Automatic annotation (TrEMBL):
GO biological process: fatty acid beta-oxidation using acyl-CoA dehydrogenase
Protein name, per record: Acyl-CoA dehydrogenase
Disordered, as annotated region: 1-22
Record domain Acyl-CoA dehydrogenase C-terminal: where: 248-386
Length: 420
């Protein structure tokens, strides 16, 4: 048995903490057999750089993407703490999957929290059926911060989409793609297109050293017909940045737990030791056990932060659907953004540490590529590079000292020189 084949203790012996809601266990029971199947092939997929298309198919068939759709509308009615708890469990099996579904759940959240109208009804039905949504927002090349070269334009009696996007995470697995671009009046707006429409081309050209199986590459759109009317981004859910960051935190939490599983299983079966070790086997060596315990503690702390952050996003969601007075809703949204920024800077460090020190409990053979134990650090480091944490501490400090509101949309690109 290899170091990556060693199974963790049964879930009932886990010490990750209490579930986020009374109904969480019944929700999780529906998907845990799928998570287990996903986990079985995770290392092989990593070594072979094989996209998890089969695994996505299992999740689609189980309607995992309908978690946030209310039960009365055909979904599972999961709360946000439930959702982020399940995403952490999925990430524990394979961290590529929750990131590949990040844009899907962002679109689902915006839809679920929207006013009841024809647009919401259309997409709620598709979500309840299990359809998956990808996203195409960021651009490379000559894009300027705050603008998009992608155009949303008139196309006969409807609308069309022309442009090129990058970081289109999960779109290769999706049925529909949510795309942001520039409208005819220069406004920032969005449309949904079929992932299989003529003129859509999606490439798996992501070349990062981590999260390599998320299908996060280039998408091009050549006069692609849009579904329905464009939706201005300014009317979409204001807590979107907090939500998208919370998905990252859940994924990082799962990575830390996977690292804890890996080092625990490897130490349990390892029978080689050092001449100067404190035990005849690593499983009886107090120094090795201390490392294992430390990795578990880091994973536990990450989970606690993930759970607290999920509660903050849930409050922002409740403010939106309750149509609270604008000032109160804004305060809740700001609070969720600040809470997520604080959680991000600390949780990221915990998970990176877990992915590093697990090797202190193992021998040099643990660095063999066949075990792929390095994927935990690589994947965590890659996720941590999105929405850079160095800016988050400053944003929190500026809010604390000066009351400066945090930014509610992250954009990348070049900054034009100031006019003379």
């Amino acid at each position: 048995m290899s170091q990556t084949d060693a199974a963790p203790w049964p879930p009932e012996r886990s010490a990750w903490g209490s579930p986020p809601s009374p109904r969480y266990e019944s929700l999780a029971a529906r998907f845990r057999p799928i998570f287990a199947r996903i986990r079985e092939g995770a290392v092989a997929r990593e070594r072979e750089r094989r996209l998890p298309e089969e695994a996505v198919g299992w999740l689609r068939a189980a309607r995992f993407g309908a978690l946030r759709v209310p039960e009365a509308e055909g979904g599972f009615g999961a709360s946000l703490p439930d959702l982020f708890g399940l995403l952490a469990e999925l990430a524990q099996a394979d961290s590529n999957l929750p990131q590949a579904l990040r844009n899907h759940f962002g679109f689902a959240e915006d839809t679920v929290s929207s006013p009841h109208d024809a647009r919401r009804a259309r997409w709620i039905e598709r979500l309840a059926e299990g359809d998956l949504f990808g996203g195409a927002w960021s651009e490379t090349g000559n894009a300027v911060v705050g603008t998009f070269e992608t155009r949303i334009h008139r196309r006969g009696d409807g609308w069309g989409l022309t442009g090129r996007k990058y970081y289109t995470t999960g779109s290769l697995f999706a049925d529909w793609i949510d795309v942001v671009g520039t409208g005819e009046a220069g406004e920032e707006t969005s449309v949904v297109v079929s992932a299989r429409a003529p003129g859509v081309a999606i490439l798996d050209d992501w070349d990062g050293f981590g999260q390599r199986l998320t299908a996060s590459g280039t998408a091009t759109f050549a006069d692609v017909p849009a579904i329905g009317e464009p939706l201005p981004t300014e009317v979409r859910f204001a807590y979107g940045t907090a939500f998208f960051q919370a998905v990252h935190l859940a994924t990082l939490t799962g990575i830390a737990r996977a690292a804890a599983d890996a080092v625990t299983g490897a130490v349990r079966i390892r029978d080689r030791t050092y001449s100067h070790a404190a035990g005849a086997r690593p499983s009886a060596d107090p120094q090795v056990l201390q490392v294992v315990g430390r990795v578990h503690a880091l994973a536990y702390a990450a989970g606690a932060l993930n759970a607290r952050a999920a509660e903050a996003v849930q409050r922002a969601y409740e403010a939106r659907v309750a149509n609270l007075p604008e000032a109160q809703a804004q305060a809740i949204t700001i609070a969720s953004e600040i809470e997520l920024a604080q959680a991000q800077t600390v949780l990221t460090g915990l998970v990176l540490d877990a992915g590093t020190i697990l090797f202190d409990a193992l021998g040099a053979s643990a660095t063999s590529s066949r075990h792929a134990l390095d994927r935990h650090w690589r994947n965590a480091r890659t996720i941590a590079s999105h929405n850079p944490r160095i800016f988050k501490d400053r944003i929190v400090g500026d809010f604390a000292v000066n009351g400066t509101e945090p930014p509610f949309q992250w954009k990348i690109g070049r900054v034009l020189p100031a006019a003379s």
